[in-house]
Fold this sequence. Notes:
With 477 residues, this protein is an alpha/beta fold. It is built from 15 helices and 19 strands. The chain has helices spanning 30-46, 69-79, 94-104, 128-141, 157-176, 198-205, 214-224, 228-240, 247-266, 279-284, 289-297, 308-320, 422-431, 446-456, 467-474; strands spanning 17-20, 50-52, 83-87, 108-111, 147-148, 180-184, 208-212, 242-243, 271-274, 302-303, 327-335, 342-347, 361-363, 373-377, 382-391, 394-404, 413-418, 437-442, 459-462. The termini are close together.
Amino acid sequence: MENKSEGALGRKPDHVKLGYAPTRRSIFSAPDALKYRGLTKARLEELGVDLVDIDDINSEGLLYADTDLPAIITKFKAEKIDGLFLPHCNFGSEYACAQLAKELGVPVLLWGPRDESPDEKGIRLRDTQCGLFATGKVLRRFQVPFTYITNCRLGDGEFRRGVYDFLRVCNVVRVFKHIRILQISTRPFDFLTTMCNEGELLERFNIQLAPIPMTELVEEVKALRGAAETAETISLIKATMDIRVDDETVRQTAALKNAMGKLAAKYRCGAAAIQCWNALQTEIGIMPCAANSLLTGEGIPVVCETDIHGAVTSLLVQAAGMGETPVMFADWTVRHPENDNGELLQHCGPWPLSLAKTKPALTKPLVFDHPGSVSAEAKHGELTLARFDGDNGEYSLLLGRAKAIDGPYTLGTYLWIEVENWKRLEAKLVEGPYIHHCTAIHGDVAPILYEACKYIGLKPDLYDNDEEAIKAYWRGA
């Protein structure tokens, strides 16, 4: 695995707030701990990290006495931190760290600066690495999951990458804990595959659904047909797509996109799952694929066939990428005609237009008679593929890597991809708990999703069988 020094996608994650609680222990050098408290904070500020410190809690701005814990907890909760950073500025106070982490319930990052050589008298000032060992053990006793950056220097690439990747993990956890999905009608009758247990999703993960009938969407579409925002969307469609349908389809597509966006905002939902056939075609005469594409491109993933688990997947993958790259909701469909490890990712057109290799067409889909789909091959590159799913009370996250390859033209939004071992992946899809849907994103966010699983109660299921490589990535190897 490539050693990327600037985080999973190479850019600083924004909008993630980190609680900064540097720690020391009394029997080691307090002046050296103070020194590294300042150096570490300065480095984080240089990296652009949004910090909440404890400088106002005591004169040192360090965590070492459990009597300070109530004030620190109150401050961090009031600031709504997304993650907790516990840099060990000398050995550290593992009992205070564990109590703080347990109370806050957010992702935890451990790190300490690499110690210098003993002085001429044989004195060591910090013993930071030893303290990390102690804190790791006590966090386990408190049943607090944590992430650690290998014992390194502030200027090392491992530190920069580790901080940025941890912020991405925090973002996945934050999004997962507040998922609400707009469910537009029921699943199609034929699709038992996309059934879900709404009560169990709420009870286990706090995943909430906002179900609405098809009529509510249809009435919103009718109300928006002549709206100014619909006219703006029509202009966008005409400017960005090769139009192969009539003007009525373009207007309905624009109104549908805006209607779904308005309803998502009304019910405070971050994603939507729509019954894309057949009732919708009876009501408004189009497929929703292009409308799904437009809304997904704005950061509100819309998935097909009322696939609630697919919507969850898209939100997780999008969060791992920090919204820097749009996601693609896809079918695993057919094997490549020549490459035994190749497969076709395809759907009727919900992929964001910005991902198209060439100008996308607004047209008819592969197997339906109504217009409203998008046809375009996606851009090539390295990808991450994932699927949140479960049955019989057990949930997991299938994930791994792929790369785009050349293949035959096909209708819809599509991309031929190659994985390390297709037969191994195919067996997982057939044997479950997964189905034929997945979410793809350009870039490697597999390590981020893998690490996030420990904080959200999911089992990571790596179809590349490369768990040790991902663990090595987090060790900075």
